[in-house]
Amino acid sequence: MINNHEIDYRILGSEMQCVEIELDPQETVMAEPGSFMMMNDGIQMNTIFGDGSQQQSGIFGKLMSAGKRLLTGESLFMTAYTNLGSGKKTVTFAAPYPGKIIPLDLSKRGGKIVCQKDSFLCAAKGVSVGLEFQKKLGAGLFGGEGFIMQKLEGDGMAFVHAGGHVEERELMAGEILKVDTGCIVAFTKDIDYDIQFVGGIKNTLFGGEGVFFATLQGPGKVWIQSLPISRLASRIVAYSGMGRREEGGLLGGLGNILDGDGN
Q: What DSSP string runs through 158-213?
């Protein structure tokens, strides 16, 4: 039985992508606030509490869903876009930073995908956006970005965004992939996820890659990103503010003078 709205889509662009969703009359797509780009006349926007899925029946279900979204750093609300016209209409959502949009057909992925908490972009109405705690103690204590993740459940289309290049890997049963926790975008429900200590005093103190990394064990599929938003943000912070003056030497000082910062 199909519970989710069946939507058609096109992914546009290369480095700064957007996804164009085609809606039949009365079809609805749910999106994160702030992702809207453009739409045809005849589509109605409606801000709702939670994700609008059937799993949220009743006020208690809606409050639980909202609380889980707060834990993942998302808004309490989502925006529903419904085609109220008589013909096909399109609505387009934009990626928040350079990277790729990944389409996920949940009906072909066992009805569930686990993804990084800030990667969800939009989905067909009926897809449940929930909280996925890692059950293992190591992942819970040291997982960092990978500890609290989102789960997308249903049988419709969902779209997540990844930073930089996206590498897709199909892991065989028992095959293990070691990954920086921030570089994980998503994985299928049968993937076993844990955290492993890097080891070695020099690696711990001077490696610059963190003390722990994630282990993903098959069978299943994983999506890995080359530029997590946290890594991008930390670099921007490092090069902002006083960073220009600390670039050092004659050339750095000359650059500051040319920019009007020579005082």
A: EEEEEES-EEEEEEPTT-EEEE-GGGEEEEETT-EEEEEE--SHHHHHH-SS-SEE
